[in-house]
């Protein structure tokens, strides 16, 4: 009989004012992919941090290969063969790819680093993962997706018996995901146990052997994947049936924004489109196509070299700053919530009101009562889970994302740019965000939505603008918005809406 490589018994983790985990039990066996599922705030990341030695349980025990852990530290977990890929990157931006991957485990001869050997080890692991990046590239110069790949490479560069993956595919393309799954299957064949956390149901059903569900910090069930389907898993996670809402599309007449021949040096070129009041304009394209760069041009983060933007009938040849963008009614929910969305060291109420400081001021003084009312409004509307005074950096990824959205909504902008609004967000929170977007449209707001999730783009958009190499490849009306047409435009196969070469 095979014994579990990890055994979790009655583990509870308490923080001031909240219980993150309560009496959780779980067994992980060699050579299996064991998925941990649950909504944001269910306790998944807390349990993984305990296994990785980043935090210790309040009560309960963890056994590794039959031996009870008496000390919880990253070094202890690493010595026990447990590796982790965190949802929020754990890289050093000003070090190279090689230096990050080999950090703390450099090959040495005496006091001297064996540079050639370290470079070769790094090249081997990059090749294994099909990562085409130089070992000497600085991490700060990589995009989010490439940083995620380096994070994964760092974890598998050492011998591990258990590999914990917390949302490893959030920023990856479909080809990169397939390469990762191929690697995971290879690790399984070598007896490595993989604990996998993902909100993407298609991934869960493709790669998992078992699924353990947590809800509000409590253990709910462990099931072989064969015993589950979409509806059963959702019900275990949220405790109820969940019906995805649809949106009726009607022709929009009033134009609220017009971009004409927009250029931003090195970012985007020759961009022309319009946005209607009450419309969702989806923005699709391959990784590096210029989707996020376009959002940052519209929000004043990248300068307009030439061209114009008209908002509510007034034309601008430049948008000087995010403050200027907000003043004319353009708000942004950025792609990278940790670096650009929230200030991790400030509490959630302060974060919610950061973009609306001027609006909430009376002369030189902040209207604290008004700020408290606004933060409570969006906390309730978005079902954000935090206690008074809690720092944004202490929240789960999904709750952080909701705070980012609340911050944008608090500015009362008429045009909202959602850049990957549901990345790393669970199925229940996704529905809450979709419902909120529908409500904003009914209020007369307009939305530009950038998303890598094809279903999200197709289901929510009135029209879809497809980007390719920093330029607009075409705009698909709803009746021509298919996965095939989006791919044809984004890859350059087609140059019109009918898909003809």
Automatic annotation (TrEMBL):
Under InterPro entries, the record lists: AAA+_ATPase, ABC_carbohydrate_import_ATPase, ABC_transporter-like_ATP-bd, ABC_transporter-like_CS, P-loop_NTPase
Location of the protein in the cell: Cell membrane
Classify the protein's membrane topology as the record does.
Peripheral membrane protein
Q: Name one Pfam family in it.
A: ABC_tran
Record has Magnesium as a keyword: no
For this protein, the record's PROSITE patterns field holds: ABC_TRANSPORTER_1, ABC_TRANSPORTER_2
- Gene Ontology terms, MF aspect: ATP binding; ATP hydrolysis activity
Residue ranges annotated for the ABC transporter domain, each copy included: 6-241, 251-494
**Name of the protein this chain belongs to:** D-xylose ABC transporter ATP-binding protein
From what organism does this protein derive?
Salipaludibacillus neizhouensis
């Amino acid at each position: 009989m095979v014994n579990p490589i990890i055994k979790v018994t009655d583990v509870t983790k308490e923080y001031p004012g909240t219980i993150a985990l309560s009496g959780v039990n779980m067994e992980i066996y060699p050579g299996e992919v064991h998925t941990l599922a649950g909504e944001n705030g269910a306790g998944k990341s807390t349990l993984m941090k305990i296994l990785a030695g980043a935090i210790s349980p309040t009560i309960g025990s963890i056994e590794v290969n039959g031996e009870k852990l008496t000390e919880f530290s990253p070094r202890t977990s690493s010595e026990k063969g447990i590796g982790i890929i965190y949802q929020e990157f754990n890289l050093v931006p000003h070090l190279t790819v090689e230096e990050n991957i080999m950090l703390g485990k450099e090959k040495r001869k005496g006091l001297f680093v064996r540079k050639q050997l370290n470079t070769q080890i790094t090249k081997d692991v990059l090749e294994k993962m099909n990562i085409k990046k130089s070992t000497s590239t600085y991490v700060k110069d990589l995009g989010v997706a490439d940083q995620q790949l380096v994070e994964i490479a760092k974890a598998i560069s050492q011998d591990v018996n258990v590999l914990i993956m917390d949302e490893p595919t959030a920023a990856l393309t479909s080809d990169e995901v397939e390469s990762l799954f191929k690697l995971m299957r290879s690790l399984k064949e070598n007896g490595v146990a993989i604990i996998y956390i993902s909100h993407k149901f298609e991934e869960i059903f493709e790669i998992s052997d078992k699924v353990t569900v947590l809800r509000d910090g409590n253990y709910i069930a462990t099931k072989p994947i064969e015993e589950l389907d979409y509806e059963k898993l959702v019900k275990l996670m949220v405790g109820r049936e969940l019906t995805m809402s649809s949106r009726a599309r009607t022709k929009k007449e009033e134009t609220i924004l017009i971009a004409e021949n927009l250029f931003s040096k090195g970012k985007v070129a020759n961009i022309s489109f319009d946005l209607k009041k009450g419309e969702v304009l989806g923005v699709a394209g391959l990784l590096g196509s210029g989707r996020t760069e376009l959002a940052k041009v519209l929000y004043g983060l990248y300068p307009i070299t030439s061209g114009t933007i008209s908002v509510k009938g007034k034309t601008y040849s430049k948008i000087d700053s995010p403050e200027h963008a907000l003043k004319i009614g353009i708000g942004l929910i950025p792609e990278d919530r940790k670096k650009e969305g929230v200030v991790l060291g400030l509490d959630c109420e302060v974060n919610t009101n950061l973009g609306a400081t001027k609006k909430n001021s009376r002369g030189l003084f902040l209207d604290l009562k008004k700020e408290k009312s606004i933060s409570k409004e969006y906390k309730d509307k978005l079902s954000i889970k935090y206690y008074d005074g809690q720092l944004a950096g202490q929240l789960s990824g999904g709750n952080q994302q909701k705070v980012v959205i609340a911050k944008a909504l608090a500015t009362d902008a008429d045009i909202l740019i959602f850049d990957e609004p549901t990345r790393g967000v669970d199925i229940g929170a996704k529905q809450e965000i979709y419902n909120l977007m529908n409500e904003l449209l009914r209020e007369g707001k307009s939305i530009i939505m950038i998303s890598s999730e094809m279903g999200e783009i197709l289901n929510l958009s009135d029209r879809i603008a497809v980007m390719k190499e920093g330029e607009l490849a075409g705009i698909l009306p709803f009746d021509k918005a298919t996965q095939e047409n989006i791919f044809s435009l984004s890859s350059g196969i087609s140059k019109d809406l009918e898909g003809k070469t």
